[in-house]
Design goal:
two-stranded antiparallel sheet; single chain; 325 residues; globular; 11 helices; mainly alpha; 3-stranded mixed beta sheet; 7% strand
Amino acid sequence: MGFTTVDHYVVRYSTTMKTDNLTNILEFHLMSFSEDPDLQPVLIGLFLSMYLVTVLGNLLIILAVSSDSHLHTPMYFFLSNLSLADICFTSTTVPRMIVDISAHSRVISFVGCLSQMSVLLMFGCMDGMLLTVMAYDRFLAICHPLHYVVIMNPRLCVFLLLVCVFISLLDSQLHNLVALQFTCFRDVEIANFFCHPSQLFSLSCSDTLIKNLVTYLVGAILGFFPISAIIFSYCKIVSSILKISSSSGRYKACSTCSSHLSVVCLFYGTAIGEYLGSAVSYSPRKGMVASLMYTVVTPMLNPFIYSLRNRDITSALKRLQRFKV
């Protein structure tokens, strides 16, 4: 066995293998937004502010829904769980990034990398699944209003939430299981500010068939099918709205969907944009900005979208403020 030093940390490799393939990786090296020392305090302040706004905003949504009996409906039940998933989703990347910037360190252990990837995938998948379930909820509310209360009963809501959790756990552990089978890596440099699954998989020099199979299978199940279900739901919703004769009825139906549709476009739009951009010509800097959009910016904007474009949430927040005063 031999040793080589890579940026102040040790990587073990086998002398019988090619020198460009590293085995027994102990640590990875994450990419930073800037190496300029003068920009470090600015980046820390920016990301800390965004993180605090994300956490406080989503906590307010959860508090408003739980404290107001008028919001104890399926739609707001899923919204509060979406806010909780957003807090956890952002918390897997931003605190670590802030600590790394302040400590001038970009090193993450192999175990830490897999842990971060697993948690990130779980709550990222949870976001997508909940948005799909919320589209189904809006489809039933607008297209089948007379049967809505009977179909979307509390038991079904809890069941759908558990299905979302189960699929998210399955996705997370499937990626983790495949990553644990990797025996060698081409490099230790991850071209992102967190352990991105596709970046980690691309560094592996293990069997490409298994990596591609998992990537495309999970992409189809968690990407194609949810997006197809959302598009189908909104096609039916638009068709039903066009059949409403009164303008006030159309406005009310549209207002209940506008917030959800905005969040869907923001979440899936940035994720698909990153995927297509990496498929055409991947740029590490552009990839980091795209990752920042859907891991930090989207969860931060969700509370604003729902509070500004939803009268029920706005009223609940006002009542909550009066109650505290």
